[in-house]
Every structure is written in structure tokens, then in C-alpha cells.
Amino acid sequence: MKKLSQKSFEEHVNTVKKFWSKNTEKRINSEENNNFKTIDDFQRIYGCLSIGEYFIYIINPNKGTFEYVSPQAEVILGYPANEYSAELCVQMVHPKDLEYVIDIQQKIANFSMEIIPEERVNYKFTYDFRVLDNNHNIHQIHLQHFFYELGKNLLPNRVICLATDITQLKVGGIPKMLVYDIKNGLNNLLNPKVNSTLHLTKKENEIIEYLIKGYTSQDIANAIGLSKHTVDTHRRNILKKNNCSNTSELFSLYFKK
To answer: Helices 217-224 and 228-241, interaxial angle, to 10°?
Structure first.
């Protein structure tokens, strides 16, 4: 396994923690020890449906710490539940997948900033990537990530992640994020039907799909060969002709298929 330099490793860890803590809410001490009464039930249900071995973990995004890791994590990857941390997560990701995974974390953070706050719990993010277990064996992990609990200000208190070992199905490939609307029938928002209530050109629809993926204007410009100024102009025009004051309002309309 090719090791990252110490500086590079620390930078990656700090970057991941920063993405986790974006738009989060600090909790008072009395809330820190809340138990997760539904986790055991959730695990029993998923165990009947899972396509591979799996484990669950819950993150406190503000602190960048793990509040819960199910015992199956040690069975699959060899690390005890009490050892899980942002540092260990970065260490486990296959070096060839690490930049993609960090980019996806950035896109999830971007997306969560754009949607209407109270609707954050309505979306799920999924992607799969390679990790190295405690014996340096490669596993393909499919990760489902969603906001489990919001605080009083509608900022994330907890993020729950379901990690499934799908090595028997595939190993490798470029990690790509999918976004699902879990409120309305698990719709894949990256393959949407055109919303007839919105007035969009083909180019504008393409730009919105990139926004859903968490791309910034500069990212979109690089992806479709336009200048950032042109992308920003398209974004202003989309908002204006659909009577939206911001991207949150636009997304709210766009997702109502």
C-alpha cells in the first residue's frame, strides 16, 4: 500500500472533517448521550434485504467523531468499533479512490447548503469505492449516507451511514455519487424526468443536474466547456424566469415531479 505523506494525510483528514461540519449544529452535553433506539430494529430489517455483509455508523458532523459503529465493522474490515475516526476512514480508502471520495464529500456538503433546510432529511447520497482492511485486503464498499437527525435550527445533528461490502459484485471503477429523494419513492435525482412546471432549456436543465451533484459554477464551467461568467448568467436566468429567489427554491420546484 502506498502511504500518503504525513502532511498530505493530515490535510485529507482535516478536509473530510470540514465537509462533515458544514452547516451543522452544536449540541449541548445533555444531548450527547442520546441512545439510538431504532438502530437495532433498522439493522434487523436491513439484514434481511442486504446484498452483502454490512455495518452501520453514526457521525457527529460538528465534532467529526463517530457516535456509534455496529460490531459488524470489525468482522468486515478488522478494525474494532471504538477505533473508528476520520483519520482511520482516510487511511482505509484505497489511494486511487481517495481524491474521488473527498470530492464526493465536498459535493454532499455543497448540495446540503443549497436545499431548503427542513428538507435535508429527505435525501440520500450513495457511492461505492475501494477500502483496505486491517490486513490490506481490498473490499468494495457501497455507502448510503443521509441526515438522520436535524437540530432546532434544522442543521444536521447526526449523519447515519450504511456500509455494505459488495466485493462479490464488483471491485474498482471510478466512485460516482447518486442522490435520491427518499420521501417520494426513492427517486434518483440524477436521472430525472423533466419537470413541466419549470421553464428550462436543454442547457439549463444540464446545469441544474450538475448543481444537484454539488458542482460549483466553476466546476460546471470546467465540465461543459463554458466560462464561469456564462454559467452564472445561466443560473441567474433560470431563477428569474422561474420566479425563484435562490437555488433552494429552485430545487424545491425541480424535485416536485
So the answer is: 110
Strand (E) or helix (H) holding 149: strand 138-150
Question: What does the pLDDT look like over 204-248, one tens digit per residue?
Answer: 989 998 998 889 999 999 999 999 999 999 999 999 999 998 888
Cut 0.90: pTM above it: no
Which DSSP state fits 13?
A: H
| Amino acid sitting at position 112 | S
pLDDT digits (tens, 9 = 90+) for 29-61: 445 555 555 666 666 666 666 778 999 999 988
Q: Contact, 147 vs 121, CB < 8 A?
A: yes
Distance CA 221, CA 229 (A): 9
Positive or negative, the Cα torsion across 180, 219, 140, 10? Answer: negative
Interacting residues of 11 by C-beta distance below 8 A, sequence separation 6+? none
CA distances from 111 to 55, 77, 120, 179 (A): 25, 30, 9, 10
DSSP state of 83: G
Sign of the torsion formed by the C-alpha atoms of 156, 161, 92 and 34: positive
Contacts of 82 (CB under 8 A, 6+ apart): 69
DSSP string, 115-133: S-GGGGGGEEEEEEEEEE-
Give the H or E element holding residue 41: helix 39-49
Q: At a CB cut-off of 8 Å and minimum separation 6, what does 114 contact?
A: 211, 247, 248, 251
